[in-house]
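User: Fold this, then the next.

Assistant: Folding the first:
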Amino acid sequence: MARAAKRTFRCTECGWTAPKWVGRCGDCQSWGTVEEVSAPVAGGVTPVRSGTPARPIAEIDVEAAQASPTGLAELDRVLGGGVVPGGVLLLAGEPGVGKSTLLLEVAARYAALGPVLYVTGEESAGQVRLRAERVGALAPKLYLAAETSLAALAGHVDEVAPRLLVVDSVQTMSAPDVPGVPGGVTQVREVAAGLIRLAKERNIATVLVGHVTKDGSIAGPRVLEHLVDVVLQFEGDRHSQLRMLRAVKNRYGPTDEIGCFELTDSGIVGLPDPSGLFLTRRTEPVPGTCVTVTVEGRRPLIAEVQALVAPTALPQPRRATSGLDSARVAMVLAVLEKRVNLRMGAADVYTSTVGGVRLVEPSVDLALALALAGSHTDLALPRGMVAIGEVGLAGDVRVVSGLQRRLLEAQRLGFTTAIVPADADDPVQVEGISTVGVSDLGQALLTAFPELRR
């Protein structure tokens, strides 16, 4: 007699299993995510002959898995060459950041290689057509469909036979005979599984748009990120035109690259050299500013840190930051107070970056400290100077990674002097730029502001 399948309960978020139902997952601690699944007992699986037998790995054809360029160099840079046939890419970002505009541009450019199907579940076909006309994304082989049913989407795929499929967005699609509302955990999981199965069987490069929650994570079950091949995060401040694309997961390329774009009224444009966006063009040095070189992925970027230290009449001085990590700003302020005796406890402190860039790398500490000290003493840094280094709680200036690349980028943009961490074991020399090694914050202040020696 065949043995009955035993009851098993699995968390839809992390995959944790339990022999009985519980309200809270014992692994990820999520509430209401444990559902019953049917699983055969051990030893109850009957072997069947596969239609595609296993072959030696050296005999596998790799030509069909080669990446195809999308036409946007910055996107190809992040993907590692382009989209892979049969690969599934998930693009997530906040509302209004420009996800649909980016993918419409990609679809129009990729249509030069073959049919492209763009399925929208959030807008009507007419609305997408108007945007495509505005950004110049009209192409003869770009097909557009407004659908929210997975079955209807599969029908369009049969008719068009696209090389690239764009689904905007996966949270608006619904699968037939699956309980739950569109965007729910069960629906998103089943829709994503169906789209991935369709992409693998038809060898179609597929791009899914994903919504994000209030804390910035991708909406839906966590298993969605595990199922897809590539996860991209599209970031940007809605008050700025700069947009950055980061790879969170990439089975076909690196995850330490970023792409820079500029969102304009006429579409989205790649920025192969975005360093100039993060600098203020002025004729004379101003106290409270310092230029540094940060590394985003493998790309060095010149950025400017600004600080304003002003007396206050409030019992509790203000501390405001924009584009910087507030915890690191508070730490640098404490180090300046304790180690170099710059009293800022009775002053308002405002810190920000130029161009809307967000700097969270520890190598920005030294530039932040010099900007704060310059504003406090009303002294300006010399022209053509950059500062790179991490500041420790003891007031020491620590070595950062990729110093050679950072100095080469500074030299390329015309900077002549760099204050860097003292590293006697491996001195860095770049032609055209003189480096001054400092071991602590006090030495850095005397190097940047010679007037303090008097």
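Now the next one, as you asked:
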Amino acid sequence: MKYYKHIITLIILLMTTTMIFSQIKPLDAVLSNYQYPYKVHFIDLQSQDNNLKMAYMDVHPQNSNGKTIMLLHGKNFNGAYWERTAKDLSDKGFRVIIPDQIGFGKSSKPHNYQFSFSQLAENTKAILDQLKIDKTIVLGHSMGGMVAVRFTLLYPERVQKLILENPIGLEDYKTFASYQTIDQAYQSELKNTANTYKNYQMKFYYDNKWKEEYQPWLDLIAGWTLHKDYPQVAWDAALTSDMIYNQPVCYEFKNIKVPTLLIIGTRDRTAIGKDRAPKELQPKMGQYQELGKKTQKEISGSKLVEIENVGHLPHIEVYSKFFDALYNFVK
């Protein structure tokens, strides 16, 4: 009897998984058929002998408090996942700027491009320049945290405050994991499916607990794998993985002089290249409950808000706690 119960449970699980993944729609390289929560604008960039388009959302408040905040997305995301954050900040009077970095979201996916955090920061500044925004609060999540750090170091006069939400790059991944070539990274990216992405997110983001509200952020990257444009997207993903591995920012935290807040979900164990590290080193990587405290000590005068038993995405997993920490710092 127990055997049949196990079989029935497995069948139900497979049917549920099939239904979830069958709802995922193919998405082209620039998400042409995907509706962002706010109007999308573009700037034209002449960069590295490429004619590029960089997408961004510009959310204006009804009653302005005179402050602007820029939200920078992570590697497996785009600006759309800031929808709720942008709405609540706008309701509080903030103007909210949400770029899609080159290589991500609705922005161009160049093939011949030397990705660097300095280049992404320069591209991001171009949006502010076009909009004539002299100063902004900068919030970066995951890879966006590394972009935010580089932006702050390059253009400190443009940054009022810095917020880092579970940023990657709090450690130097080269000291743990072996190098992989861009070609190897590309082949690895080509193997991604809705299943591999979901398994990764379950492990590192949500502690094997899946909720319906997580599905849209899986659909966006999984939809790419179903489209003929996916090799184009996968190539840029390989290039940006190489950027993260080879361009650590952790040695420069001591140079940050602007008021800084760290929002850290302490359950997070995200670490680039963990699967390539020796087994004895893998458990030492991505220990955010330790990395948050270490980074706070390195950034003079910074504040740390730890959110217990939360993974890589506080603004998705425990939004209210995330927003309370954010708003208390920027209001």
